[in-house]
Amino acid sequence: EKGGYDHYMFKEIQEQPVSLAQTIEGRVEDGLDLSPETLAGVDSVQFVACGTSYHAALYGAHQLRSWGVEATASLASEYSVYPPPMEDALVVGVTQSGETADTLDALSVAGDRGATRLAVTNVVGSTAARESDDTVFIRAGPEIGVAATKTFSSQVVTLYLLAREVASVVTDPPAAAALDGMDELPDAVETVLDGSRAARLADEYLGEDGHFFLGRGNGVPVAMEGALKFKEITYEHAEGFPAGELKHGPLALVTEKTPVFAVCTGRDAGKIESAIREVQTRGAPVVAIAPRTMTDIVEVADDALTVPAVHPDLTPILTNVQLQLLAYHAASSLGRSIDKPRNLAKSVTVE
Ligand code: M6R
Predict the structure, then answer these.
(1) Coil, strand or helix: which one is 342?
(2) Mean pLDDT of the region 124-138
(3) How many Cβ atoms sit within 10 Å of the Cβ of residue 170?
């Protein structure tokens, strides 16, 4: 049932060309089939989500803002503490399982305040799907490993398509959008899946004092997701944050014992390059995760995990697959319980 692999997580990473093709199928041409009321009168989007789904939500908010649409991503558990004004906002709950208590609670708070709620989920018949005004299924297929992998990729693609639809109602998304390249994405993921380099670097760059994942723009959700995946299954300390925050605190922890993984998604390469130099000066070994065409970044780093050059809006998916492989191989070398990490459950149904 694990398709000949040792772990569901690895199987699910390898499945991504197929799961992404399922997510995309028919939707570039025909859209997400939202009900006509869902976007009526909408002027902004508020995403609510937890964990990996929150990172996908951050990506969605970033994409919408890049097209001039007001959008926020909130951790569901915090959203309910002081709910923001949400008149004319579309509240989008992003939840793989559709059963995460904090996300359901945030959606119910939004419902009580009269907002339109859209669930973006993987599970047909889930509570989020049943209790929201409208639902988009990410169509990734069942995910058994506690660590979310293929569902993150499918969430990101779905939120890109959703952002495009919202932007076409609220503003005008630019003509040079990534839609044309969408159909090539599964093949691009396939080329990343070889993963032998990620396996080697996972051993070489295991830090004694922790691991930092940096990004900028739409690379920030990837850095945060890379760190979450790494800590979740290796039990090693990892932190992911925007590169610009380095000198506001984290730099104090950077030494030769804290490898840095610098995510570059194709924009703002200069800023990532200067962050790389900054941590190298403190002795930290750096792995760049970047399109292979970004030779400046690849050359300045000590090592690199490269990905095919696709539209910069879609590069986050490819760079994230490299970080999935990195986390998997590090956890595998350490002999961890990869599919069921200690203290964690696939679906968190308590607040
Ligand atoms: O089912 P959900 O997407 O609502 O789950 C949210 C988080 O519990 C989940 O993404 C968690 O962070 C993953 N185990 C991370 O790999």
Answers:
(1) coil
(2) 98
(3) 20
Q: Is the ipTM of this complex over 0.90?
A: yes
DSSP string, 251-270: GGG-STTS-EEEE--SS-HH
Q: Is 346 a catalytic residue?
A: yes
| Interacting residues of 40 by C-beta distance below 8 A, sequence separation 6+ | none
Judge contact between 116 and 38, C-beta under 8 A: yes
E strands in the chain: 44-49, 70-75, 89-95, 116-121, 134-137, 211-215, 238-242, 260-263, 286-291, 303-307
Q: Is the CB of 144 inside a 6 Å radius of any atom of ligand 1?
A: no
Token code pair at residue 38: 């869902």
pLDDT tens, residue by residue, 169-226: 999 777 767 787 899 999 999 999 988 999 999 999 999 999 999 999 999 999 999 9
Percent of the chain whose pLDDT exceeds 90: 89
- The structure tokens listed for 217 are 């723009």
Tokens found for residue 294: 């970004």
State the distance from the centre of ligand 1 to the C-alpha of 195, rounded, in angstroms: 24
> Which two structure tokens, joined as six digits, stand for 163?
């952002």
What does residue 342 show for φ and ψ, rounded to 5 degrees?
-55, 145
Q: Report how far residue 64's alpha carbon sits from residue 167's, in angstroms, rounded to the nearest whole number.
A: 7
**194 SS3 class:** coil
Residue 119 near ligand 1, beta carbon < 6 Å: no
Q: How many helices (H) and strands (E) does the chain have?
A: 15, 10
Could you tell me if the CB of 146 is within 6 A of ligand 1? Answer: yes
**Residues 199/329, Cβ–Cβ less than 8 Å:** yes
Euclidean distance between CA atoms 44 and 346, whole angstroms: 31
Tell me the C-alpha distance between 263 and 212, whole Å. 11
Residues in the chain: 351
DSSP at 247: G
DSSP secondary-structure letter at 99? -
